[in-house]
Amino acid sequence: MTAENTRWEYATLPLIVHATKQILDQWGEDGWELVTVIPGPDGTNPVAYLKRPKAA
Fold it and tell me: Which of 4, 5, 22, 46 is deepest in the core (most CB within 10 A)?
């Protein structure tokens, strides 16, 4: 699969601050790549945005 025709799936994930590394490590093991982390709708709890290539 080339970069031009890679199809992606996306996920959003609320993060628990005291367990962020463990949460992201687990999602990484499942093939997800972290794109960004931004404050959640309440302005405090962070939300991670992740992506991974879709299975063919």
Answer: 46
